[in-house]
Amino acid sequence: MNAAYVDVYREEDMFTVVFGSLKMGERAVPMSINSFTYNVPVALAITAALMPFIKRKMRAFFESLSFLVLLHIFYVLMLEALSFTIGNSILHTVNEYFFLFMHRIMTRSEPFIIGLYLFTVHKEL
Protein backbone atom coordinates (compact mmCIF):
# COMPACT_ATOMS: atom_id res chain seq x y z
CA MET A 1 0.00 0.00 0.00
CA ASN A 2 2.67 2.46 -1.10
CA ALA A 3 4.77 1.65 1.96
CA ALA A 4 8.53 2.00 1.83
CA TYR A 5 11.21 0.45 4.00
CA VAL A 6 12.56 2.93 6.56
CA ASP A 7 14.76 1.11 9.08
CA VAL A 8 15.44 -2.08 11.07
CA TYR A 9 16.17 -2.15 14.79
CA ARG A 10 17.45 -5.13 16.78
CA GLU A 11 16.88 -5.44 20.53
CA GLU A 12 17.80 -8.69 22.32
CA ASP A 13 15.48 -11.42 20.91
CA MET A 14 13.38 -9.13 18.72
CA PHE A 15 13.92 -7.14 15.58
CA THR A 16 11.63 -4.42 14.32
CA VAL A 17 11.14 -3.41 10.71
CA VAL A 18 9.82 0.12 10.21
CA PHE A 19 7.80 0.96 7.11
CA GLY A 20 6.53 4.38 6.17
CA SER A 21 4.10 6.04 3.81
CA LEU A 22 2.68 9.51 3.34
CA LYS A 23 -0.86 8.45 4.32
CA MET A 24 -0.12 6.26 7.34
CA GLY A 25 3.14 7.72 8.62
CA GLU A 26 5.63 5.23 10.02
CA ARG A 27 4.54 1.80 11.22
CA ALA A 28 6.78 -0.68 13.07
CA VAL A 29 6.41 -4.46 12.66
CA PRO A 30 8.13 -6.38 15.50
CA MET A 31 9.18 -10.02 15.04
CA SER A 32 10.98 -12.52 17.24
CA ILE A 33 14.42 -13.64 16.08
CA ASN A 34 13.60 -17.18 17.23
CA SER A 35 10.68 -17.37 14.82
CA PHE A 36 11.22 -19.87 12.02
CA THR A 37 8.45 -18.76 9.71
CA TYR A 38 10.98 -18.12 6.96
CA ASN A 39 11.56 -21.88 6.44
CA VAL A 40 8.38 -22.64 4.54
CA PRO A 41 8.47 -19.65 2.14
CA VAL A 42 12.18 -20.12 1.43
CA ALA A 43 11.76 -23.87 0.88
CA LEU A 44 8.82 -23.29 -1.47
CA ALA A 45 10.77 -20.57 -3.30
CA ILE A 46 13.74 -22.90 -3.78
CA THR A 47 11.36 -25.62 -4.97
CA ALA A 48 9.73 -23.23 -7.44
CA ALA A 49 13.12 -22.05 -8.69
CA LEU A 50 14.18 -25.63 -9.40
CA MET A 51 10.96 -26.62 -11.19
CA PRO A 52 12.28 -25.91 -14.73
CA PHE A 53 15.04 -28.48 -14.11
CA ILE A 54 12.76 -31.22 -12.75
CA LYS A 55 11.04 -33.89 -14.86
CA ARG A 56 8.23 -34.98 -12.54
CA LYS A 57 7.17 -31.67 -11.06
CA MET A 58 4.18 -32.78 -8.97
CA ARG A 59 6.10 -35.64 -7.37
CA ALA A 60 9.00 -33.34 -6.49
CA PHE A 61 6.64 -30.71 -5.07
CA PHE A 62 4.82 -33.24 -2.86
CA GLU A 63 8.10 -34.78 -1.71
CA SER A 64 9.46 -31.39 -0.64
CA LEU A 65 6.17 -30.50 1.06
CA SER A 66 6.13 -33.87 2.84
CA PHE A 67 9.70 -33.34 4.00
CA LEU A 68 8.75 -29.94 5.42
CA VAL A 69 5.71 -31.30 7.26
CA LEU A 70 7.53 -34.34 8.66
CA LEU A 71 10.47 -32.30 9.86
CA HIS A 72 8.17 -29.82 11.61
CA ILE A 73 6.22 -32.67 13.24
CA PHE A 74 9.50 -34.21 14.41
CA TYR A 75 10.54 -30.82 15.81
CA VAL A 76 7.31 -30.53 17.80
CA LEU A 77 7.66 -34.10 19.08
CA MET A 78 11.21 -33.38 20.26
CA LEU A 79 9.95 -30.27 22.05
CA GLU A 80 7.21 -32.29 23.76
CA ALA A 81 9.65 -35.07 24.71
CA LEU A 82 11.65 -32.52 26.71
CA SER A 83 8.73 -31.97 29.07
CA PHE A 84 8.14 -35.70 29.59
CA THR A 85 11.72 -36.54 30.58
CA ILE A 86 12.30 -33.97 33.32
CA GLY A 87 12.60 -36.64 36.08
CA ASN A 88 15.26 -38.73 34.33
CA SER A 89 18.40 -36.62 33.94
CA ILE A 90 20.17 -38.88 31.40
CA LEU A 91 17.15 -39.20 29.13
CA HIS A 92 16.43 -35.48 29.49
CA THR A 93 20.02 -34.63 28.50
CA VAL A 94 19.80 -36.84 25.40
CA ASN A 95 16.44 -35.32 24.43
CA GLU A 96 17.76 -31.83 25.03
CA TYR A 97 20.74 -32.53 22.77
CA PHE A 98 18.51 -33.80 19.94
CA PHE A 99 16.14 -30.86 20.38
CA LEU A 100 19.00 -28.35 20.22
CA PHE A 101 20.33 -30.09 17.12
CA MET A 102 16.93 -29.76 15.47
CA HIS A 103 16.55 -26.19 16.66
CA ARG A 104 19.97 -24.86 15.67
CA ILE A 105 20.95 -26.89 12.64
CA MET A 106 17.92 -28.31 10.88
CA THR A 107 15.58 -25.33 11.18
CA ARG A 108 18.14 -23.03 9.60
CA SER A 109 19.28 -25.35 6.81
CA GLU A 110 16.00 -27.12 6.05
CA PRO A 111 15.14 -25.18 2.85
CA PHE A 112 18.62 -25.73 1.44
CA ILE A 113 18.51 -29.46 2.23
CA ILE A 114 15.23 -29.65 0.30
CA GLY A 115 16.81 -27.76 -2.60
CA LEU A 116 19.84 -30.04 -2.62
CA TYR A 117 17.61 -33.11 -2.53
CA LEU A 118 15.44 -31.88 -5.40
CA PHE A 119 18.42 -30.90 -7.51
CA THR A 120 20.29 -34.18 -7.05
CA VAL A 121 17.36 -36.61 -7.25
CA HIS A 122 14.95 -34.96 -9.68
CA LYS A 123 17.17 -32.99 -12.04
CA GLU A 124 16.62 -33.38 -15.76
CA LEU A 125 19.54 -35.08 -17.50
Written account of the structure:
The protein is of the alpha+beta class. The chain has helices at residues 39-50, 57-84, 89-122, and strands at residues 4-11, 14-21, 25-32. It has a three-stranded antiparallel beta sheet, with no helix packed on it. Helix 1 packs antiparallel against helix 2 (57-84), helix 1 (39-50) packs parallel to helix 3 and helix 2 runs antiparallel to helix 3 (89-122). The termini are far apart. The mean pLDDT is 78.
Q: What is the count of helical runs?
A: 3
SS-derived structural category: alpha+beta
> Number of DSSP strands?
3
Quaternary state of the chains: single chain
What series of H and E elements makes up the topology? Answer: EEEHHH
Strand content: 15-25%
Mean pLDDT: 78
Major sheet = 3 strands, antiparallel
How far apart the termini lie comes to 44 Å
Could you give the order of strands across the largest sheet? 1-2-3
Judging from the principal axes of the Cα atoms, what is the shape? flat
The parts where pLDDT drops under 50 for at least 5 residues are none
Helix content: 55-70%
Structural Rg:
19 Å
